[in-house]
Amino acid sequence: MVVLAIAVPAAASSSQSDADVSPERMAELRAFLTQDCGSCHGLTRKGGLGSPLTPEAIADRSDEDLALTILHGVPGTPMPPWSALLTEAEVDAIVRMLRNGD
Ligand code: HEC
C-alpha cells in the first residue's frame, strides 16, 4: 500500500512533464514521422496516399489546425487519429518538424 501511494503520484507527475519532449523522444518522433506517417505521406513528405506535408504544402494551415488533424485524424479518410499514441506536446513537436521541414 505504501509503495503504491508513493508510486502513483510519481508516475502522474512524470507524464505531466511532457511539455518538454526529451531529446531521446524527439529522435523517436522523427523516426516515427518518417516511417509511420511516411508510409502514407511519403518518406520525403511529398505525398502518397496522404497529402504532401512539406513546409510549402502546409503553409496556409495553422499549427493548431495541423495538431488537431494529427490528434483526431480526418474522419472518412485513411488519416487515423494519433491521440492514443502521441501526447499533445509530441504532436506539437511533430508540427514544428513539418513546419521546418527537418
Ligand atoms: C494510413 C495512412 C496515413 C497515415 C499512416 C498518416 N496519414 Fe496523415 N493523412 C492521410 C490522408 C489520406 C490524409 C488526407 C485526408 C483528406 O483527404 O483530407 C491525411 C492528412 C493529414 C494532414 C492534413 C494535411 C492537410 O494539408 O490537410 C496532416 C497534417 C497529416 N495527415 C499528418 C500526419 C502525421 C503527422 C502522421 C503520422 C503521425 C500521419 N498523418 C499518418 C493518411 C495517413
Automatic annotation (TrEMBL):
It comes from the Bacteria. This is Cytochrome c55X NirC. One of its GO terms (molecular function) is heme binding. InterPro entries: Cyt_c-like_dom, Cyt_c-like_dom_sf. Pfam families: Cytochrome_CBB3 (PF13442). The keyword Metal-binding applies. Keywords: Heme, Iron, Metal-binding. Residues 23-102 form the Cytochrome c domain. It comes from Caenispirillum salinarum AK4.
